[in-house]
Write a structure and sequence with these properties.
alpha+beta, three-stranded antiparallel beta sheet, three-stranded mixed beta sheet
Length: about 150
């Protein structure tokens, strides 16, 4: 059975001077986060952007996929700290998300660096957000075991 989640956005004004908000519509866990065009293409100045929300989605999705890969390999993560850095650039087609670079630091008893990197590469390729981005966005991962 398919799972659905919803979010909603409201925009007021023109693109360059207008402002908007984005809210979760499924859980209502975030409400009226302010967004603007300038926050997307310049300094965020305390506002969020679709790119930041995409980074949050990718980091959380990847962390779950990595935890799953590790358990399948016989290891349980004590902690995985994941950052996704989304990059966008102005291309011929206009502003475009071009990459997501994942950085993970993990505490995983019993696993060695090579096995951790293998699990991370697999998670980068298999998490649902990565699969949605694949072919359109460059995906990379840097995995480091912490003592």
């Amino acid at each position: 059975m398919a799972v659905t989640r919803s979010a909603k956005a409201t925009w007021r004004g023109n693109l360059l001077e207008g402002r908007g908000t984005v809210s979760s519509a499924t859980t209502m866990r975030f409400n009226d986060l302010p967004v603007s065009w300038n926050a997307r293409t310049g300094e965020p100045e305390g506002l969020t952007s679709p790119e930041e929300l995409l980074a949050a989605a990718h980091a959380s999705c990847f962390s779950m996929a990595l935890a799953s890969n590790l358990i399948k390999a016989g290891f349980t993560a004590e902690q995985l700290d994941v950052t996704s850095t989304i990059s966008a650039d102005k291309l011929d087609a206009g502003w475009t998300v071009i990459s997501s670079h994942l950085v993970v630091h993990g505490r995983v008893p019993g696993v060695d660096q090579a096995a951790f990197e293998k699990a991370a590469e697999g998670a980068k390729d298999s998490c649902p957000i990565s699969r949605a981005l694949k072919g359109n966005v460059e995906l990379s991962v840097e995995a480091t075991l912490d003592a």
